[in-house]
Amino acid sequence: MGVWIKLFLSCLFILSAIFLWRLTDSPVTSIIVFNIVIIYFALWSNFSIIYKITTKLKFSFVFSITYVLTAGVGNAIADNVPISRIEYMTQYASNIVILLAPVIISSFYNIIFLKKNSTWLRAAIYSSMAVMLSVPTTLGIVLTVIGMVVVAGVKHQLSWMTIKKLFLTLVVILSLSSVFIFPFLQQRTANNWANLPNNPDLFGADFNTFFNRLFGLGDALSLTIIIFTVWLVLSKKFNSTYKFLGISYLASLLFLYSNLFPWYLVNPALSGALQMTYRWNFLPALFGSLYVAFAVNDLIKVKKSVLPIVYLSLLYLAFNAMMLNTFAKKFHLDGFNNLTNQLILPTKENIRTDGLFNVNNSSVQIMLENPDLALDDYRATGQTKKFKNVYIDSLVKFDEKTYIDKTSVDGNNFYIRDIPNKISKVQAPITYLEGFVAFDEKGKKLPVYKDADGFVSISPRGAKSIRLEYHKTLLHQASILTFVFSWIVLVVFWIIYIWKDYIHADTVNSRTGI
């Protein structure tokens, strides 16, 4: 898994956080600063796309602030940590994608149903970022877009021009994310990885969790929708738009968190790709935020103060009722109950169960030096549970007999030493990937293949030691070139666009004397 993450998972946003970490030598500070940047970027992105489609300033502002403050997902939906508090590192990349989901969906909606092509490039850029950040969450966005295409086709609203624009968008998405998606597909088809992690089902929570959060005032979005529904009915402004959005909001919650949908039918195919249903929590958040935005837009005509009231209420619930109380329950805070605020070092149990431990340079270093602390049961298909120890203890097999202390690492090279005579097969404690190359002590290349257990195996041919290296495949190298070229073209296109816009504005000002 470590080789896979290092070589293929191109989370470009998260690399920025790592750079801040290196620059400040403070993991906590770097994450806080990075979160602030991501939150403001998400606010601007969501506001920008909605305003471009609707040209309604207040509507766009209310939607973006509501969505970012209430689209809750965490280590479990029951915790209801708002998406803008993305401290749950196990879901970090997914949370960023959920923040940006409305941009992608709205851009495609504009193309498919409104017949406007002005957002195709935005759809391509944000979709490529989503693909490189989180496959499970992006899968939900892809299925949503496919659903929109199917609906448009059934209603005979899908023109040939729209199909061509969608195809062009897909090509650009593949180009901008080629450094990840093509090597990923190559490696996914070259081995027999299991669906990871190996969850028994897809449910993120029972539906009663929704009521618990609602009555505990922990679900700001649902609470706001209920209040606005009563207000709209009393004001006689409750129309078909609210009925559709309200039903869609409730249906999406039931779809994700109840037995209404037969998840067991798709569990074998999706348990690895989706993992848990709360990764698609952008669906109810999107419908609910639209509901609130429409309501504020209508009710502000009755009472002008509704906008600041809603804004301040959402801020209060998000920053106090959800974030601070959740942290007080789940994490040690400096100055909070100092009598029990002792340094608790990370262990395998409290990491895997979200137990209490301080986050500082010392505890983070422990996790870096002991990556097996949070090691889940990642095994190739068909492997038994005992194979987990093969990864953790770096066990080597010589002709099916297990040995310890036979491996070492020097830089990017993996070494297997003290190989007995007349051995026909050496099994390395590494999951097979295309691109592994093995050499003996004289530098002679040795045959490498995937064995029945899914591990890298080598035919030693009399070698006493083996050096295992990873070389990027030709497809991987081509993907890197395509990725770099595509982003360079995009940046050049953006500079030309800005320059032309500047020249046009300067010309207009000169003619009008402004």
TrEMBL record:
Highest rank taxon of the organism:
Bacteria
Q: Does the keyword Phosphoprotein apply?
A: no
Keyword Cell wall biogenesis/degradation found: no
Where does the sequence pass through the membrane? 7-24, 30-51, 92-112, 124-154, 166-185, 214-234, 246-266, 278-297, 309-328, 478-499
| Keywords associated with the record | Membrane, Transmembrane, Transmembrane helix
Name of this protein: Uncharacterized protein
Q: Could you tell me which species this protein originates from?
A: Lactococcus cremoris subsp. cremoris TIFN6
